[in-house]
Amino acid sequence: MRLLTATTQDQGNREGDFTYAVEGELVLLEEVCATDRRDPDGGCGCGRAFAGMSSHRATTTAVVRELDLTYDDVELAVSGYYRAGGAGPEVIGVEEFAVLVNDQAHEVIRFAQAFPVDTVLGRRPDSVFPRSVPASR
Question: 33 is in which domain, residue-wise?
Answer without folding.
Answer: 2-74+110-132
